[in-house]
Design a protein that fits this description.
The structure is a homodimer. With about 220 residues, chain A is mainly alpha-helical. In chain A, about 65% of the residues lie in helices and about 0% in strands. Chain A contains 10 helices and no strands. The N terminus of chain A is likely disordered. The structure holds a DNA duplex (30 and 30 nucleotides).
Chain lengths: ~220, ~220
DNA sequence: TAAGGTACATATACACCGTAAGTTTGTCAA
DNA sequence: TTGACAAACTTACGGTGTATATGTACCTTA
């Protein structure tokens, strides 16, 4: 009688729906009840496929990390690092909620492991010693996540928006108390064509060039 | 009869207690009810001094930022940036919960404004153009927050702990699947004397040196 | 001294949250 | 047909932020 084909739930379907929910309404809109609803199921049914909500959070972070393009064997380390940085920023921009989750998530999933391993491989094959590879990994990764974190905490998305927001903020800011902040806002952030996102590649290249110099000098 | 002197609640007392609660039990232990309890008051009484919980979160982030040593007028930009980076890391290490809050907090408080302004002043007085100051600010800040974020997401605190954790992780890791991860763990992180925190100054100096070179070359 | 206003603490209530425990249902093998 | 098992559902508990309404203690002014 019931012609509807029962599509069974699965860990994968749960996680995919969770990513969709977080994308649509932010991480705070991801509750077990809403997630169940999204899947046409009661909240408690989800517990047949994941141990608890923490496991869901770990899982969706790993999904986002899995979207980052990883270096292939044989790639030159410098363009490879450049590319993976840009790809990481793109992934976290698509899923802004994932950035804040990084801090609280302890258990790396398989995609994260593969990601880290391929980055280290790229550096080691590029001639970095173990210690220098650790240095390079740390500084590049810190920069990537830090930049994304800062970018996401800005109260605007586009350059035009930035100018508007800056204008209203400056208007109600005690100018003589924060003169350099005002200067930066008025003479830089409020200028036409400004886009904070453009800063990303400046810092990235500064770091990559410095690492390259350090490597060739040694 | 009642000899107890009534100490009235205030926004400041609320925020201070909130910082204490978050320090003691993490940010998820900070609830309005527990906070009221801490202050000997019902949860709803807090709303006479703060608009809502978000305002508390904004407020305690600003308190943490206020603990960062800021450059004084006249300081050389490079040691000033170095010092404020180290001081920022120390502040966020004392209050780890604040790092994750940075992403979700939009409204900078007075301490944050003063902090940003003094950093910009240091760079501008150090000879950076507005554009270069923006570049430098972005790359240094991104690095600082990114590093802290990474450091906090490590599942260990000390070098010895790191070695232990690495050992158990590697033991259950498919070695041939993540060879470079294993190499890094065994030949670096598990070595005596290892401490991820030492990476901080390497990356910091790499960035500061690169900025200095860029400035003198120009 | 009395009256009125203001500031702030409280009490109650609502809609949500994660999840423990127990019960029912759907599906497939014997 | 029966039995077993997986997976869905139901109910319930103790927590969350906060809207609303209700005291209550103090200060100001007459």
């Amino acid at each position: 009688m019931a012609t509807s084909v029962r599509v069974p739930l699965s860990r994968e379907r749960v996680l995919t729906a969770a990513v969709g929910l977080a994308d649509a309404g932010g991480i705070e809109s991801l509750s077990m009840r809403r997630l169940g609803q999204e899947l046409g199921v009661e909240a408690m049914s989800l517990y047949n496929h994941v141990a608890n909500k923490d496991e869901i959070l770990d899982g969706i972070v790993d999904i986002v990390v899995g979207e980052i393009e990883i270096p292939s064997p044989g790639d030159d380390w410098k363009p490879a690092m450049r590319q993976r940085a840009i790809s990481a920023r793109a992934a976290f921009t698509r899923h802004p909620w994932a950035t804040g989750l990084m801090e609280s998530r302890i258990n790396p999933g398989p995609a994260s492991m593969r990601y880290y391993d391929s980055v280290l491989r790229s550096l080691r094959e590029g001639g970095f010693s173990i210690e220098m590879a650790a240095h390079a990994f740390s500084v590049i990764d810190s920069y990537i996540y830090g930049f994304i974190l800062q970018e996401l905490s800005l109260p605007f998305d586009t350059g035009e928006e930035a100018a508007e927001v800056a204008e209203t903020i400056v208007a109600q800011m005690p100018v003589d108390e924060y003169p350099y902040l005002v200067e930066m806002a008025v003479e830089h952030a409020m200028q036409p064509g400004y886009d904070y996102g453009n800063e990303f590649e400046f810092g990235l290249d500064l770091i990559l060039d410095a690492l390259e110099r350090m490597q060739t000098d040694a």
